[in-house]
Specification:
heterodimer, A: alpha+beta, 3-stranded antiparallel sheet, 3 helices, B: alpha+beta, 19% strand, globular, Aceto_COase_bsu/gsu (chain A), Acetone carboxylase subunit gamma (chain A), Znf_C2H2_type (chain A), Acetone carboxylase subunit alpha (chain B), Oxoprolinase-like (chain B)
């Protein structure tokens, strides 16, 4: 069954040009780009985050997280300087939240005062041209299985592992 | 050739005369930048052209490939079974085959990519300089040895044996065998001297030379090598092991030639490279054009705390991808944490092959498809004067760079894209977290090496499930952890705990990273023993999360000093009181009179008295996704498996449950998580407002900071009055002040202040 699905997707006729429907490119677990409108969107709540030619971070909320909140001191701070917690004068966690649904879209570990990194900067025109030749993907399917030893490729189903967390 | 004054005034004939003279009288055959800076495939030779013209049947070439891969697997097992080095016992080795020109074409299936990747450089050196040198030459039955990373290598603890394979007098290919040997006569025992302040502190410096003639080890040269290290037995035994693995591999290759013909072998070796490179370009073409940027900081030079930036901008345009590492920290000329460019690139290759495209053949064709941009004299492109003994620190970050950059390019791709070869996953823990040791064994023999603890790096979380615990070193997925009992038979070390997963040290996320394990070790029955560690990440987290997941925590070293725990055990009832857990031992301090210390996990070699306890943790992999999306039942399972505390379940994951039955209150959990999402919206600031108050012109004055800040074109180095600013394209190497001198000056100032 899975093999059939794989074959279908490989051999299905591809659209010759961009369809009328809006193509939205899934960029991360929480972000997508609406190609027609050139907008970043939240994948959890569909919130319009901002101009896809600029950093998606510009449309999010940012919080300078105290590292000890997340990486809690496990050793007695009264006794020890090193406790499994990062040094807050050296390391901060910038948390980026969707302003609409509050999902944590990204974390950035950085040095206090360092400019936030513009981490994803795609060429929108090239992206449009690329997706004009592709079928739209509305949901990312679970990932491919890891490569299997020779002779076992077709015995394993493509997506589901039967793992409780899948 | 050097540019000489007055050169322009010479006639063509005079210039040729001068050039010939210079070529014939080269003072020193140092590392050749033309070899060391080039990671592209060598041009096709006439023999390769001929072979490819006549051997076009892919089925035949695949048959040849199968035979060669099988031979590589066999020679790998030989080394693993016979090798004396601890590294050999747990798989820190490789055997490989190269084209006649020296391009890496295939490695043993379970072998270390980085070792084979850097081994092509010394082969190319031998080809270029020794083949036609009347005092050397390259002949059937020769074996060349090498370990200096400036001629190709990761660090000087790895030794390679390389042998040419001839057929009817024609060089057809090269084969090699490499082991992380450990001891190499450096300033600190064990082969990875964090204390090295110059390349002359790094021990053996073998440029590529012949040590085997007519398949026989030259005993005079071997004696010189044995005389230069602390463990002459190891040097001898593993030299023979590597030689015989190469000889077996050569036998198999010659059998392939006998059966299929020389041209079939040559065509396979070359086509393997060209096809692989073409496939990588096809995959890059599937990615979006654009840039993905990522910064990471190493927080120690292993001699002093310092923030050393590794900056990366991965750029895709069409079927080309450039890894731009400009803006990274300057090289530190008297510290061991530098890497030469050849090593840096090959570590990136490892990152790609292990985490992104594991289905590709592991060869130079993959690397050749990428372009690199670096600043000369930087931490990841150091000059030949800089010590590189602990190059692992910056190099491992280039593996991390791959695991952060590629998912952001790949996540969007359709199911049938070839570039989606495996799951998207967060960064694996990226520190060489192990004890390097040295001293006298209980058999009164001098030794120095390192433990297989390094193989317990937690895997990063995946997009559809948690990372594996303590799965492998991040540079070798096939490595095992070895037999501790075997080590304890030989070494005066006792593990009080081993491979006990470190609770609550987690890369949190929707899926969590795999955990690392705790190690608690002491010495017994020796008159001289010591440890060092080469871990960074005690102040700044080293393994990043992905798509909203958190990094691993920060890991210190912990010690219990000035006590003999074996004496304490002998006192009635104490054995039952000992907490086999770092956190409990350090917080409860059950052994009276002892001195309890935590410190930066980068520790230079330190003598240990019997019964003193040293503790480190393997780290966790980074988390994936928003913590509030973690399945509450998965959180309960983490509690059942004692991976996390109740505090973490409640305060990190916001799960409401009965702590006795671990039954989740789904409604209350949803409400708690909604409340946390609302709290995020209250405390988060709009980006522009946030950056206006956050961004500074440079690092805080007292931060020992090295690397670019906002603009990758400007490099900051140092702190306070000693801080300098340089152009990224014109970096001057940095010399760090002696930490002891700084300490003396500080104490003198305090004395002076007190009158």
């Amino acid at each position: 069954m899975a093999v059939q699905r794989q074959c279908q997707s490989r051999h299905a006729a591809r659209p010759r040009q961009l369809r009328r429907q809006t193509v939205k490119v899934l960029v991360t677990e929480y972000l997508r780009i609406d190609l027609a409108g050139e907008r970043w969107e939240c994948r959890r709540c569909d919130h319009d985050i901002g101009d896809a030619r600029r950093s998606y971070k510009e449309g999010l909320l940012v919080y300078d997280r105290e590292p000890a909140d997340i990486h809690k001191p496990l050793l007695d701070t009264g006794k020890y300087a090193f406790t499994f917690t990062p040094d807050p004068r050296w390391c901060r966690i910038l948390e980026y939240y969707c302003p609409s649904c509050g999902t944590m879209v990204e974390t950035e570990y950085t040095v206090p005062g360092h400019p936030p990194v513009h981490d994803i900067e795609f060429d929108l025109d090239a992206l449009k041209a690329q997706w004009a030749q592709r079928r739209p993907v509305t949901e990312r399917t679970p990932a491919k299985d890891l490569p299997r030893p020779e002779g076992h490729h077709h015995h394993h189903h493509h997506h589901r592992h039967g793992h409780p967390e899948d | 050739m050097n540019v000489m004054p007055g050169l322009a005034t010479l006639s063509v004939g005079e210039r040729k005369l001068l050039q010939d003279f210079v070529d014939e009288h080269q003072l020193f055959y140092g590392p050749d930048p033309a070899i060391m800076r080039n990671h592209k495939l060598e041009p096709r030779t006439a023999a390769e052209d001929r072979a490819l013209d006549t051997q076009g049947d892919p089925h035949l070439l695949n048959q040849v490939r199968g035979r060669v891969v099988s031979a590589l697997a066999e020679s790998f097992r030989m080394v693993e079974q016979m090798g004396a080095a601890p590294g050999a016992k747990w798989g820190d080795l490789v055997t490989a085959i190269f084209t006649a020109s020296g391009d890496l074409s295939e490695i043993s299936p379970a072998g270390i990519v980085t070792f084979a990747g850097v081994c092509q450089y010394p082969i190319k050196f031998v080809n270029k300089y020794w083949t036609h040198d009347p005092s050397v030459g390259v002949r059937h039955g020769d074996g060349f040895i090498h370990n200096d990373s400036r001629y190709g290598g990761i660090h000087n603890t790895d030794q390679s044996m390389m042998m040419p394979v001839f057929h009817d007098g024609e060089l057809v290919c090269w084969v090699s065998s490499t082991i992380h040997e450990g001891e190499n006569g450096a300033i600190e025992p064990g082969g990875m001297p964090a204390k090295a302040e110059s390349r002359f502190d790094e021990g053996l410096k073998m440029s590529p030379f012949r040590i085997v003639e007519d398949f026989q080890v030259k005993r005079d040269i071997l004696t010189f090598l044995q005389n230069s290290v602390r463990d002459p037995k190891l040097q001898y035994e593993d030299l023979k092991v590597k030689l015989h693995a190469c000889m077996r591999l050569m036998d198999r290759v010659r059998a392939v030639i006998a059966e299929f013909g020389k041209d079939a072998l040559i065509a396979y070796l070359r086509r393997n490279l060209e096809d692989t490179e073409a496939e990588v370009h096809r995959r890059i073409a599937e990615l979006p054009d654009g840039v993905v940027r990522f910064n990471t900081w190493i927080d120690s030079t292993l001699r002093e705390p310092a923030l050393l930036k590794v900056a990366c901008a991965a750029r895709v345009k069409g079927d080309r991808m450039t890894i731009d590492l400009r803006g990274s920290s300057p090289q530190l000329s008297n510290r061991s944490v530098n890497a030469v460019l050849g090593s840096t690139k090959v570590c990136f290759l490892t990152g790609v092959l292990q985490n992104i495209w594991p289905d590709l053949p592991h060869n130079l064709g993959v690397l050749a498809a990428f372009d690199f941009e670096t600043d000369r004299n930087s931490l990841i492109d150091a000059n030949n004067d800089a010590p590189c003994a602990m190059s692992l620190l910056p190099m491992f970050r280039t593996i991390t760079v791959a695991t952060v950059a590629f998912p952001k390019f790949i996540y969007s791709l359709p199911d049938d894209a070839k570039a989606r070869a495996t799951v998207v996953l967060a960064g694996q823990y990226n520190q060489p977290a192990t004890f390097v040791y040295g001293g006298l064994t209980q058999h009164m023999e001098v030794t120095g090496n390192f433990c297989a603890d390094i193989n317990g790096n937690g895997q990063g979380a995946r997009e559809n499930r948690d990372g594996e615990h303590s799965v492998s070193p991040l540079f070798g997925f096939m490595c095992d952890t070895g037999e501790y009992e075997l080590a304890e038979e030989e070494l005066p070390m006792v593990r009080l705990i081993a491979q006990h997963l470190a609770r609550d040290r987690v890369g949190w996320g929707k899926y969590r990273g795999g955990l690392g394990y705790e190690q608690m070790v002491t010495a017994r029955g020796t008159s001289m023993w010591g440890f060092m560690t080469g871990q960074s990440g005690s102040r700044f987290c080293s393994a990043p999360g992905l798509f909203g997941g958190y990094s691993c925590p920060a890991y210190p070293i912990a010690k219990v000093k000035d006590v003999n725990v074996f004496d304490w055990f002998n006192e009635h009832g104490n054995a039952a009181l000992f907490p086999y857990d770092i956190v409990q031992l350090m917080n409860e301090r059950p052994i009276g009179q002892a001195r309890y210390v935590t410190a930066d996990a980068g520790m230079t070699f330190e003598m240990v008295e019997e019964g003193e306890i040293y503790m480190i943790c393997q780290g966790a992999g980074g988390g994936y996704g928003d913590i509030l999306e973690r399945d509450p039942e998965a959180v309960m399972q983490d509690l059942r498996e004692d991976l996390i505390s109740h505090d973490s379940a409640r305060e990190i994951y916001r799960v409401v449950y009965d702590p006795r039955t671990l039954i989740v209150d789904a409604t209350a959990t949803a409400a708690a998580r909604d409340e946390e999402r609302a709290a995020r919206k209250r405390r988060g600031k709009p980006f522009a407002e946030f950056t206006a108050g956050w961004v500074t012109d440079g690092p805080a004055p007292d931060l020992p900071y090295y690397g670019s800040w906002g603009d990758p074109g400007t490099i900051v180095a140092g702190w306070d009055k000693s801080r300098r600013t340089m152009e990224a394209g014109a970096i001057e190497p940095i010399f760090m002040p002696d930490p002891r001198e700084l300490r003396i000056a500080e104490l003198e100032a305090r004395l002076a202040a007190q009158g």
